[in-house]
Write a structure and sequence with these properties.
The N and C termini lie close together (10 Å). The protein has 2 domains: 126 residues, Jelly Rolls (Sandwich), CATH 2.60.120; 100 residues, Jelly Rolls. The strands form 5 sheets. Strands 3, 16, 17, 18, 19, 20, 21, 22, 23, 24 and 25 form an 11-stranded antiparallel β-sheet that branches. Strands 4, 5, 6, 7, 9, 12, 14 and 15 form an 8-stranded antiparallel β-sheet that branches. Strands 8-13-10-11 form a 4-stranded antiparallel β-sheet, with no helix packed on it. Strand 16 and strand 17 form a beta hairpin. It is mostly beta strands. The chain is 4% helix and 48% strand. It contains 1 helix and 27 strands. Its cofactor is Fe cation. Keywords: Iron, Metal-binding. Belongs to the pirin family. It comes from Kutzneria kofuensis.
Amino acid sequence: MSNQCTNPSLDAEGVAVDDVRLLEARAVPLGGVRAIKVDRLLPHRTLPTVGAWCFLDRFGPQYDDMTVLPHPHTGLQTVTWPFAGEVRHRDSLGSDVVIKPGQLNLMTAGRGISHSEFSLGDRPLLDGLQLWLALPASADSVAPAFEQHADLPVFADHGLRARVFIGSIGDVTSPATTYSPLVGADFSLAPGDAATVPLRPDFEHALVVVEGSLSALGHELPSGPMLYLGTNRDHVTVTSDRGARAILLGGTPYEDDLVMWWNFVGRSHDDIAAARAEWEDGDRFGVVHGHDGARIPAPPLPGVRLTPRHRR
């Protein structure tokens, strides 16, 4: 599913690359009747994945309640990276933890898991990222798991300090469990700062500013949209007049067919249909205790067969 260019152009740094794009988010309600608004960057209609990253929501900043009843997942890992507020996570493995800023919360769905997410406090300030990683075909049926990491490594070089919450930058590697080569890192620039962020040429990468603004590859990047950097580069230089906080995502281009629908990642329509049926009437996803049986029902499948997402 990678979109390799046979005659790549030169970017603002003189590097031959296949593609650079600024992609806007779209507003999506999350959580049913008591929905909060999220800004969704992935999947984008022209770009379904960045490496194995197949889903990216920004929830906030907003003063609201997050009330997401138990719901299922398959074939993916959820990565929760909060900036403000606290959320209680409960899942069908028996996990019951508070998600706090600065901690990585990683749930591996594998063959099937269910969980709930409720904010703590009365209409708290909530802000953060919810991301999914599509598991490769070799691992999409692994046993479900949950892990939380509060002590995360920092890559530091010539003024750049990047907290690596998953994957690797250079020789700095997060302790989080991964199933494909990738990176997820959070870095900040002070006003007037410039930094060189090392990249792997075999990865595709993207930048998302979450606070302030920065310049990269000739683009002025405010908070909100995602700058897709393409492949075939070993660094990107970023500068900021006013200061910025940004997220770097990347990984080897995802080559497997990928069918995404509702909370499921599969390889075919039949995978998705089976998962939906078992959520509605089965025990594949277990029980999230503490909700008296309340949960989010699966929406009806569309009237056509689901097909893999492809780039445009």
